[in-house]
Design a protein that fits this description.
Blueprint (H helix, E strand, L loop, with lengths): L12 H12 L3 E8 L9 E4 L3 H9 L7 H8 L4 E2 L7 H12 L5 E8 L4 E9 L9 H31 L6 H11 L4 H8 L3 H14 L5 H10 L4
Antiparallel strand pairs: 1-2, 1-5, 3-4, 4-5
Helix pairs in contact: 2-9, 6-8, 6-9, 7-8, 8-9
Amino acid sequence: MEQDDIDYLAASVQQSIPHVASRFGVEFVTLHLFRGGKDAQDIPYVRTNYPEAWVSHYLLNDYVRIDPVLQMAEATDAPFCWSSLRLEPAHAEMMQQAAEHGVWPTGFSACHVDPIGRRSVLSCNARVAQRGKTWEPFLAEHRDHLTRLVAKLHQMALGEVSIEIESLPVLSPRELECLKWTAAGKAHTEIAIILNLSEHTVRSYLKDARTKLDSVTLAQAVSKASSLGLL
């Protein structure tokens, strides 16, 4: 891998995710943008290719509060291997749930903090590490590239957040209700019973919500709606 070559990124962070995954030979890639600082407004932002079922389960259980990767990312600016994480019982349970959803706990993360304290963490994970039992050898070789990569993705994410804030999508009450129940892990048929609607109507509401949120998948729509404070 050329250390200065990051021209494989696409026009948006979400479109860049599969390119990063291919470049590093990993299954999953996630960029999480959040702001630090006592008085800063917290605008969570997540772009990922995790399975929809895992994203919904993660949101339902509010794992963002205990996610050991995010906790480490808030404590360090240096790239780190997940093998170095100190897992408490709650962390181990979350990792076990992730594995049951096909998301493997073998990975690494790289962080970026801009001059006003906004922080991003880029995380990659796969079934097995490359060139060793952990990702440490890979990190040692590609540390500089990762540092530049996450800085570039951070800037792209900030631009996308600014556009989203300036033009928040207007979702109908029914569209929001369907999204909220989806985030709670309910299937279309269950939402239809809860809201006394037909399954076709529920699917229509969710499709419209996904379109308004400019999301490829329903999981992405739920994540974006949550990050924008709509849920």
